[in-house]
Write a structure and sequence with these properties.
The protein is 47% helix and 19% strand. The strands form five sheets. Strands 7, 8, 9, 10 and 11 form a five-stranded antiparallel beta sheet that branches. A four-stranded antiparallel beta sheet has the order 16-3-18-17. A hairpin with a 2-residue loop joins β1 and β2. α5 packs across α9 and α11 packs across α19.
């Protein structure tokens, strides 16, 4: 009854709350009526030529390519750089796919199912298929029988889950290469079609021959810009702006951000060192005397013990002298030591020594099923092989066969052994000194306090200076995978594109350091701002003013010798200059001077030429004309051959530059 009374006493207040709740419910329902559309729009990572790219399509392609990398490389330990490379490669493949598909639809071009079969599994498969090691025979060369056997095997049905997973991986592998072949075939069709339309003609051939064979000798002088003091010229802001306007297309940009950041290294504390040393001291005597060496080592060490043999070449350098010194014997013990450079406590025990074994073995896999062939393996060290294969392989003699179980019985024959060398068995206990959770917490709190106390760029920089922290800088794009070489720093990039200029970030954990950043610059314009590039253009503006200064000094000269005297330089000579020369004598890249040498009448003084390194004046000799006869067929063939290397790339690049592409991957990564 008391509860009911309280409700009555607060009836008006509750009525307001209920009313607000109902309003929220109604508004929520109205908003949610469009949420399916809103959510749907959030599922797309981009759009290419009108084709919306769904997140699942992109991620599936990323997973597929990742599996291909694993199979092709035999590795699973991919770092963030390789993951970023894979994601970018997938996006580029999607761009190529949909831009080519768009072009193909306009001209009625495609790769048919029959064509794709011939390219993938026909009598003469595409190079992308024939170069795969998965389809190589015993001799390492492509074997179509292996390919057909593979294609047949991936259609197998099984109830075994592990087998199903393996089959799915194999199917994904094949689907990737089938799609890659189709995409490549589309590229080859399209570029092949346009290559027939874009060809050198007789005019091109004649110009090319003349440019190569027409020659001229010339006398010249050059006054270097560095020989004119900067104090003799004055450069205005407008002078620099003029160059900026001329070069503006060179300063196109995609949205980017400038950030500055400081690091708080996550390093062990003194307490961490003491705890690790104490833990090692606790087990030292047990390690020295135990009979169950593997248990003690593998329970306490960063280095596992599996009883493998080591030679002087394979043993870690830190243990070489201990294990192989004269008089070494089983049971010898290397007491606890500390490696300050690597922050490692270590000790070791010599388990066995005084015996010799080969360093490498060569094996042959013996075929056990119909249709299989023996396979020769290359030389392998003991550590390259699983232990159950290494033990009989290195204990046997050439010609010996042995069988091991690898899910099924496999037989090997020893076909080669290197000369026996001294070996040891050594047990090693190493423990790296690593930061404890308490240390992590203390360093994080210090970084967090830095953020709390410094909420703008000015305070950020002042505090960094006071704490003697180096302020590092970086420029990042929307799709930058990381900041400089900071590990796992993609979250900083995302933050930079959401923050306001001058804003200080929260604490980011990037590998073995905490990072605090401040956004120092926002660049969203189509071109880089004039102020950003002003300093780099000033050098050229100064040289242009120096060119004007030098030109005035030779305004009234009539001969090259007079010009040389006026400028206090010597007359030089260049011989055999052609129109397609890359260099002007010893002066390097001076294309304007090459043009002037051919444009100026013989034996006349050219106008002053503003070059890259200085001002030149030139007096050309008689032009040595090219031979009247031009072998047009050969010239055209050579020009088309050179064009064939670059044209496919240029065509595809041109298509992509003019395609309508929206890249929203940054919202998902």
């Amino acid at each position: 009854m008391a509860t009911l009374q309280r409700i009555r006493n607060h009836g008006y207040f509750l009525l307001i709350i209920v009313g607000l709740a109902m309003l929220a419910f109604v508004l929520g329902d109205l908003l949610n009526s469009g949420s399916s559309y809103m959510n749907k729009s959030r599922e797309y990572i981009g759009e290419i030529e009108g084709e919306k790219i769904h997140y699942t399509e992109y991620e599936s392609a990323v997973e597929q390519l990742t599996e291909v990398y694993k199979i092709e490389s035999g590795r699973n330990d991919f770092d963030e750089d390789l993951h970023a490379q894979i994601r970018n490669q997938v996006w580029q493949m999607l761009v190529t796919k949909y831009t080519l598909q768009h072009q193909g639809e306009m001209i009625g071009m495609d790769v048919t199912a029959d064509e794709l079969y011939e390219l993938c599994a026909g009598a003469h498969p595409h190079q992308l298929i024939t170069s795969r090691r998965a389809f190589a025979g015993a001799d390492g060369q492509f074997d179509r029988a292996y390919l057909l056997n593979f294609l047949s095997s991936i259609e197998t049905e099984t109830d075994d889950r592990e087998m199903q997973a393996n089959l799915q991986q194999a199917k994904n592998y094949w689907m990737y290469w089938e799609n890659a072949v189709k995409l490549t075939a589309m590229q080859e069709k399209y570029t092949g079609l346009l290559q027939h339309l874009i060809s050198a003609n007789k005019i091109d051939a004649k110009y090319a021959a003349q440019s190569r064979e027409t020659k001229v000798d010339a006398a010249y002088i050059m006054k270097p810009y560095y020989a004119v003091a900067d104090s003799l010229v004055t450069v205005s802001n407008n002078d620099i702006k003029k160059i900026y306007d001329e070069r503006k297309q060179m300063y196109k940009q995609t949205p980017n951000r400038d950030i500055a950041y400081v690091a708080f290294p996550i390093i062990p504390s003194e307490t961490d060192y003491e705890m690790t040393e104490k833990a090692m001291q606790t087990i030292e005597e047990e390690f020295r005397t135990t009979e169950d060496i593997a248990l003690v080592v593998n329970s306490n060490s960063d280095v596992t013990y599996d009883g493998r043999n080591m030679s002087e070449q394979s043993i870690p350098e830190e243990y070489k002298e201990f294990a192989f010194h004269k008089g070494a014997k089983a049971g010898d013990f290397m007491p606890l030591t500390y490696d300050a450079e690597n922050r490692i406590f270590r000790m070791a025990r010599l388990v066995e020594c005084g015996f010799s074994m080969p360093d490498s073995v060569k094996l042959k896999g013996i075929a056990t099923k119909e249709g299989e062939e023996d396979f020769d393996y290359d030389w392998m060290a003991e550590n390259d092989l699983p232990k159950n294969i290494a033990e009989p392989a290195f204990a046997g003699k050439v010609g010996t066969r042995f069988t091991v179980n690898m899910g099924e019985d496999r037989t090997f024959e020893i076909t080669g052994l290197t000369k026996a060398t001294p070996k040891v068995k050594i047990a090693i206990i190493e423990q790296s000194v690593t930061p404890s959770s308490k240390t992590y917490s203390a360093i994080f709190n210090a970084a967090k306090q830095f953020v709390i106390n410094n909420t703008n760029e000015e305070a950020f920089r002042a505090a960094a200076e006071e704490e003697q922290k180096e302020v590092l800088t970086a420029n990042v794009q929307k799709m930058s995978n990381k900041v400089n070489d900071l590990k796992s720093s993609r979250p900083i990039v995302r933050w930079a594109f959401e923050a306001k200029e001058g804003q200080v970030s929260d604490v980011f954990e990037c590998g073995k350091e905490y990072i605090v950043a401040v956004l120092t610059g926002t660049h969203d314009g189509e071109y880089r701002d004039f102020e950003e590039v002003k300093s780099t253009l000033r050098y050229e503006a100064v040289n242009r003013k120096k060119a004007e200064y030098i030109t005035k000094q030779v305004a009234n000269v009539a001969t090259l010798e007079e010009a040389a005297t006026a400028l206090n330089v010597e007359v030089k000579n260049v011989q055999g200059l052609t129109k397609d020369s890359y260099r002007f004598g010893s002066e390097g890249m001076e294309p304007a001077a090459i043009g002037a040498a051919f444009a100026t009448p013989a034996h006349q003084l050219s106008k002053p030429v503003r070059g890259n390194q200085g001002v030149l004046l030139i007096v050309p000799a008689e032009t040595q004309e090219a031979a009247a006869e031009v072998n047009y067929e050969t010239e055209i063939a050579n020009m088309n051959a050179r064009m064939a290397y670059s044209l496919p790339y240029q065509l595809l690049n041109n298509i992509e530059q003019h395609a309508e592409i929206v890249d929203d991957r940054a919202k998902f990564q």
